[in-house]
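Case 198 in the screening queue. Each case pairs one protein sequence with one candidate compound; here the compound is flavin mononucleotide. For every case the pipeline is the same: read the inputs, emit a complex structure as tokens, and attach any notable structural observations.

Predict complex for case 198.
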Amino acid sequence: MKVIAFNGSARKDGNTAVLLRRVLRVLEEEGVKTELIQLAGEPIRGCNACRTCYNTKNELCIIEDDKVNEYVQKMKLADGIILGSPTYFSMMTPEMKALIDRTGYVARANNHLFKRKVGAAVVAVRRAGGIPTFDAINHFFLISQMIVPGSSYWNVGFGHKKGDVENDDEGMQTMEDLGRNMAWLIKKLNAKQKKEKA
Ligand SMILES: Cc1cc2nc3c(=O)[nH]c(=O)nc-3n(C[C@H](O)[C@H](O)[C@H](O)COP(=O)(O)O)c2cc1C
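Case 198 output:
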């Protein structure tokens, strides 16, 4: 069982990373392997709408000068995918949007590669715009036929300067509860898949 998390912040190891690491720590405690990829400093181009992925159906995006094809395979092999983003002008970062557009299109072109994986959005925000960001990321999971667990609040943590979010007790607790619910769901799905195969 493995969960892959992406941090779409342009700032490495900031508030989004703190929130993500809290979820991942709980998953590890529950016996789920985790990996965190931070997009900061890794240029990602947006989708160029060529639709080559729909013609070739080889699980590849034609743009090869960034790591998106590697990310598609990592997401395909994982049981769960967490997408974390800070709020920029009431929305996810351009890096996270590019990741969603490119991996999402390749996945859809190849018979829904992410179908029935568990997905969770994690959002850092200073004051406002966290919920539209959370909603937009969840739209990606839902159209990808993924399964989205809840938490004790919507998965948003408040903070401005690096590390501020550690002081948002409720936000950190939300991440803790998200990790437990995600682990519970992944284990159930895993057991069911094993039973179906036997
Ligand atoms: C370009 C930019 C736009 C931002 N827009 C918003 C916003 O719309 N609402 C808000 O509350 N905070 C906004 N912020 C603040 C960040 O969401 C906040 O500092 C967040 O904790 C950063 O997360 P990070 O440390 O993971 O990068 C913005 C920050 C930047 C750099």
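Case 198 observations:
- Helices lie at 15-29, 52-56, 68-77, 94-109, 130-143, 169-197.
- The pocket of flavin mononucleotide is lined by residues 9, 11, 14-16, 86-90, 124-129, 159-160, 162 (CB under 6 Å).
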